[in-house]
Amino acid sequence: MNATHLARSTIRELLELGISDFVISPGSRNAPLSIAISEAAERGLADLHIRLDERGAGFYALGVAKAINEYVAVICTSGTAVANYHPAALEALHSDVKVLFLTADRPARVRNTGANQTTLQDGILAPLLTIDTATPVDLSEILCGGPVHINLQFDEPLLPQDHNDWLAGFSLTQFDDEVEAKESIAVAPAGVLIVGHDRAGFSVDAINEFADILDWPVIAEDPLSITSALAHASLFLADEKIRAALAAPEIIIIGRTTLSRSINSYISEAERIIVIDPRTQFIDTQRSADLILTSIPHVTKHATPQEWDQKWIDACDHASRVMADERVWSEQSAIKTITSNLPEDSALFVGSSRPIRDIEACASTREGLSVFANRGLAGIDGNLATAFGIASRFERTYAVIGDLTALHDISALANPIDENLTVFILDNNGGGIFSTLPQAGVADFERIFGTPHNLDLEKIIAGFGQPVMRVKSNADLVQVIASQPEGLNFVIVELPTRADNAARLKEIYQRVASAVRIGINLA
Q: What are the percentages of helix, strand and coil residues in the chain, rounded to 5?
């Protein structure tokens, strides 16, 4: 089939299905797609994003898709370009984000012949579903949630030979928004609702509504989104005696709990566990629980005993008093300062490793933020590019990431954005999380786990021509946030050593446990 006709047919169908965001990396074999999208963008039918490298483009598309919860198409040429999508494809799969990986290929007849820039692209993004085709396909049957790979075989000529108005008569497809019927379940009067950071894809409003109906204590890995969440639970539940005192007859988990061992230990001690997560149908098929649901159910229950609620409120209050006094300059106090001072109606992207765990443990609950993170596989790759994509959909966006995370994706700065994004880089010269794990103190720790970079991040970022500043106190952080700098900005947060942070964190756990034990009469 003519390459131009295949590209135009594909792009028109995507547009009619309501897909309007297209991320392109420059290439030759994908020229038919690039030209078609450019023509659609000129008609106001598409938003065109250009990203120079495919690895970053995949994560950028992931960020946009997270922000809008709609399909975003990301498009590349053949060969290694496709392989560079794999990290973002896996993250999209395991977090169930709607990204369409649209890859250009040579005709099947030239595979395994030594043809330039040709490899076996069919299945290269496994375990994603791949459609390998040289003719148009019905995409409405394929794009039904979750990432998909469409591999298009383009034969030469790659440039259009006509000037047909291929977008004439364009119209959007109307979809049936019928809501799936909810299952009804009976639950115990006393229990705990635990919400994983990615919320299993459910909206904040849906979870808050469910939490109100359930009327149980709520633990959220993202305390900045779930309004009824009790802060600092991962801190005080690290204490075995407190866990026993707060043991739940029943726990409902929405999504995955991936951040703290204390929460997972608490879950393992429950009498009955209910999991709500649609990914159990096609990704997490071996997940176990007493009951597994794929949608938020209707619940019937008796009134929650007042003493059950009060016990949790007391534990949270005593932990919160300890954390309110945490003013010593540290990673934890920096996280508290950042998250409590961000303006309402802004977005926050949180990097993996220590930042996201410190927010779960140390941040106070609040409203007014849209919070995102890559928790599908919890990697540190592509975090800057993901934040760039999220920023394309918000008036003001912030990101909190570690220094190694920033260096891992430093090439994103070669393709900066114009949107208002302030990136806080927590700089402790290496992999801080390992100082808080059992690996701490093993022989040759610094070389194989600590991995100090010994680099001046301020100079590196300035070398890309990006505005950058360095802060060394909570007061500095407050001032930066209040100034609301325009455009893309970087803030190097200079912190104590990783060893000092690990010791500080251990001390926080001990102080919180002691206060809660005394407060709920366990001492």
A: 40, 20, 45
- Do residues 480 and 422 lie in contact, with contact meaning Cβ atoms separated by under 8 Å? yes
CA distance 220 to 367: 13
Which CATH fold would you assign to the domain 3-153?
Answer: Rossmann fold (3.40.50)
From the candidate CATH numbers 3.40.50.970, 3.30.70.260, 3.30.70.2750, 1.20.120.450, the one assigned to the domain spanning 331-495: 3.40.50.970
Average pLDDT over residues 193-215: 96
- Per residue, the 3-state secondary structure of 181-228, as one string, reads CCCEEECCCCCEEEECCCHHHCCHHHHHHHHHHHCCCEEECCCCCCCC
Taking only the tens place, the pLDDT of each residue in 74-117 is 999 999 999 999 999 999 999 999 999 999 999 999 999 999 99
Cα diameter, the chain = 82
Distance CA 477, CA 397 (A): 16
With contact defined as beta carbons under 8 Å apart, do 411 and 51 qualify? no
C-alpha 520/C-alpha 311 separation (Å) is 7
CATH architecture of 184-312: 3-Layer(aba) Sandwich (3.40)
